[in-house]
Write a structure and sequence with these properties.
Blueprint (H helix, E strand, L loop, with lengths): L1 E5 L7 H15 L3 E6 L13 E4 H4 L3 E7 L5 H6 L1 E9 L7 H4 L5 E4 L2 H11 L4 E2 L22 E6 L9 H12 L5 E7 L4 H9 L6 E5 L7 H4 L4 E4 L8 H8 L4 E3 L15 E2 L4 H13 L1 H15 L4 H27 L1
């Protein structure tokens, strides 16, 4: 089976990472995967083991399954030669109605959040192909970590994208710092343009902090293992990659419901908060004051996230493909007779 994905680029974004990881899982199962971008430039932030090609190449190639996430490239997928053309709905920020309602496209949802949105807003039930995490890359610490007196709060530092909620987490930590002066903030990101670089350079807070940039993505488990808690305050997310990665690393999580409906059970696998500074601060305070709760969430979170594995997701998508092919063959046989 040959699969492909139409992407705007191969920079470090969750949607790009999704298809690289999915492609690796499919290749391990004996299938082919190609990422098509306008210029065909391979990623610089991870190993280059997925075929990269251009939109021009796509017009001369065939794929059994061809995925698209960005409505700007509708014309590209409709010019392509593919048996199943699939809109993979990965973000609620995108104006997706033209893609979801187009009968020429099959619709996948990357999370329960997105599937629920599509049912309520568009009256369709997409195929649920929820996100995943590599539990070998993001793993539990191998021994007891020596801790200093600081309580370390880790947050994804993509501060130019307000939907990530980084600023809200920082403000929550600033409120907490008055009462808990031993808290320490660690932010991380790989800036992919000058605006991101400038925002990181200009970032400041009175809470003691480190801002780690360009850390090797495949070694990010070491970043998570520095943390006592991981905090995310996303809005309109499809699948919260960093939350899943923190859980896989055995780090207790405080997060909004956005992108986490499949993985966060409040009080069991994480702490669910509203997208306000006060609510986020209260969630963090719960974990500052309760080592027992931190341990419970760390254990339960890791156990729960193990069911969201790239190999399992690949199997689910392949199952969808086989079912569609079986149905197609039955229809063709019925026409013959």
């Amino acid at each position: 089976m040959k699969a492909g994905a139409i992407l705007p680029h191969t920079n470090l974004y969750g949607g790009v990472k999704r298809f690289i990881e999915l492609g690796r899982a499919l290749q391990q199962k004996g299938h082919a995967m190609t990422l098509y971008t306008p210029k065909g430039i391979p990623p610089s932030w991870t190993r280059n083991d997925i075929r990269i090609a251009t939109f021009a190449d796509l017009e001369h190639e065939y794929n059994d399954m061809l995925f698209i996430t960005d409505r700007r490239y509708r014309d590209v997928i409709f010019r392509a030669n593919a048996r199943y053309k699939i809109f993979y709905h990965v973000s609620l920020h995108h104006k997706a109605w033209k893609m979801v309602m187009d009968k020429r496209l099959h619709v996948f949802a990357c999370s329960t959040n997105v599937a629920r949105h599509d049912r309520l807003c568009f009256g369709i039930t997409p195929f649920l192909a929820a996100g995943a995490v590599d539990t070998r890359t993001f793993y539990l610490p191998c021994d007891d970590r020596k801790k200093n007196d600081a309580f370390t709060i880790l947050v994804y530092g993509r501060i130019t994208e307000r939907v990530k909620g980084t600023e809200l987490v920082v403000h929550a930590c600033e409120k907490l710092h008055r009462r808990y002066p031993n808290i320490r903030l660690v932010l991380f990101d790989t800036p992919v343009n000058p605006a991101m670089e400038k925002a990181i350079e200009e970032f400041s807070t009175h809470v003691p902090f480190d801002f780690i940039t360009n850390h090797p993505v495949e070694e990010n488990a070491a970043l998570f293992h520095q943390a006592d808690v991981f905090v995310a305050a996303e809005k309109g997310a499809g699948w919260a990659n960093t939350v899943a990665e923190a859980m896989a690393c055995g780090i207790p999580v405080v997060a909004t419901r956005s992108g986490t409906a499949d993985i966060l059970i409040d009080g069991e696998t994480g702490i669910v908060v509203r997208r306000t500074t006060g609510s986020i601060a209260r969630g963090i305070r719960l974990l500052i004051e309760s080592p027992e709760l931190r341990q419970k969430l760390a254990v339960n979170g890791r156990r729960h996230i193990e069911q969201f594995d790239w190999q399992m997701l690949a199997d689910k998508i392949l199952g969808w493909y086989v079912e569609k092919e079986d149905s197609r063959f039955k229809k063709e046989d019925s026409f013959r007779f």
